[in-house]
Each structure stands twice: as structure tokens, then as C-alpha cells.
Design a protein that fits this description.
alpha/beta, 9-stranded mixed β-sheet, 11 strands, about 35% helix
Length: about 240
């Protein structure tokens, strides 16, 4: 039977650092890296999608949770380094299971990763390698959500997909409000106007400018990713009308 054509050929997947933590979302759970990498490898082989990943570092350190005696730029750089730790663990898990992978950092750490070069990242994807982007955009005051939107724009991704611990974008926090309504589709302006906090306003604005759809879905159903990139309507999509 012919393989179903992909709706999205080049995908930027944003993975929050909490996914790699223990039950409380903190620390490093190597089983999580192993499990997620195996599922993503299976999806890559099944669909032949070009996959880039941006990882967060919240399981190790969040810049906004800084101690009072650490200034904000220093805390943000510490958070960027946390994403590098997660990226290294994820890359190791991918390659242990036979998937060629490259990790790129927004600032140079030559001993462990390539510095981010846009053309090189695109070439890695064209050769079938998973590319992991770490260290945000290399500057303080910007979150990994904004970094994900920026990288998706730079390397010409067809879609930005964010994996969370809920089924999509709700009218309010579904973990706190049982009456929260799940939105199946929103436009960029609605998300910004309603201040729905699943991603930063800067990330939504950048994707709006470059017409990159954003899909938010539940990481607990990671196998749905294959269906999403083939065009199935799962989670919430943010796009133009």
C-alpha cells in the first residue's frame, strides 16, 4: 500500500524539560530520554520526516525561578546550560538506538556540540539526521519557546509542534479548572489577544509573520505525532484563518 503523503515534511518539535525529569518534573530521568528517543526514531523511520528538536531545561534549572542573589541574565545563561545537558542525554539516547543525530548550541561549547550554523543544520536534516537545538538563542531574556519559533523560521520548517502535558490549548489551565474548554483551532491573533500562555507572545508573533502553523498536543500520546504530520487533526492548531 502506498505511503500516505506527509502534510508536514520538515518539523520542529519543542520538548519541555519537564518531560525528562522524575515524577515531580525535576532532576534527570534517563528512562525518559530512552523512551522518547525510541518513539521518535520509530516515527522518523515510518514517515521519513525531517525532524528538528528544541529541548527545554526546566527539569534542571529555570531562569525565572532564580534565587534573589542571582541576576536575571546569569540565571538565563544557567538555564541555557541546562538545555545543553538535556540535549546531550537525548542525543546519546538517539544514537544508542541507531539514529544519526547532531546537537547544535546557540553559543560555542566545542567539546560537546556543533555551534549553530543555519545552513549546516538544514544540510543535516536533508541527510536524514535528527537535529537537536540547545542553549535557546544564546541570549538572556528569551525563552526556549521563542527559540523554537526562531529556529523553525530559520530552517524553513512546515510546522512547529509543541508537546505538553495536556491535550492542547485550553481556555484556562485544565489542571486547575475542570471546566476549561479545549480549543481545536485558533488563529494567531486570538491566542495573543486572549493571552493563552501555552507559548510566549513573541513565539506566536514570529510564527504569524512567517505563516508557520503551531500544533500543541499531549506528550503522553507521542505516537500521535506520526498522525499529526500526516495531517490528522489532533490537539490544537494555531494558524491563519
Amino acid at each position: 500500500m502506498a505511503q500516505r503523503k506527509l502534510k508536514y515534511k520538515r518539523v520542529l518539535l519543542k520538548l519541555t524539560g519537564d518531560l525528562f525529569g522524575n515524577k515531580n518534573g525535576k532532576g534527570i530521568n534517563f528512562d525518559a530520554f530512552d523512551e522518547i528517543s525510541k518513539k521518535l526514531i520509530r516515527i522518523c523511520k515510518e514517515t521519513k520526516v525531517e525532524l528538528a528538536i528544541v529541548v527545554g531545561g526546566g527539569n534542571i534549572f529555570r531562569g525565572r525561578e532564580r534565587a534573589l542573589h542571582v541576576d536575571e541574565p546569569t540565571a538565563d545563561y544557567m538555564g541555557m546550560l541546562a538545555t545543553v545537558i538535556n540535549g546531550m542525554a537525548l542525543q546519546e539516547a538517539f544514537e544508542r538506538h541507531g539514529m544519526p543525530t547532531r546537537m547544535m548550541t546557540a553559543f560555542e561549547i566545542k567539546a560537546v556540540a556543533e555551534p549553530y550554523i543555519r545552513r549546516r543544520a538544514i544540510r543535516h536534516l536533508e541527510k536524514g539526521r535528527v537535529v537537536i537545538f540547545t542553549a535557546g538563542i544564546g541570549s538572556p531574556f528569551f525563552t526556549t519557546d521563542t527559540g523554537a519559533a526562531l529556529r523553525a523560521t530559520e530552517i524553513y520548517c512546515d510546522v512547529l509542534i509543541k508537546a505538553t502535558n495536556v491535550d492542547g490549548i485550553y481556555s484556562s489551565d485544565p489542571l486547575k479548572n475542570s471546566d476549561a474548554k479545549l480549543h481545536k483551532k485558533l488563529n494567531y491573533n486570538e491566542v495573543i489577544k486572549k493571552e493563552l500562555q501555552v507559548m510566549d507572545t513573541a513565539a506566536f508573533t514570529l510564527c504569524r509573520k512567517h505563516k508557520i502553523p503551531i500544533i500543541v498536543f499531549n506528550i503522553s500520546r507521542l505516537n500521535d505525532l506520526a498522525k499529526i504530520i500526516k495531517g490528522s487533526k489532533i490537539g490544537t492548531i494555531v494558524c491563519e484563518d
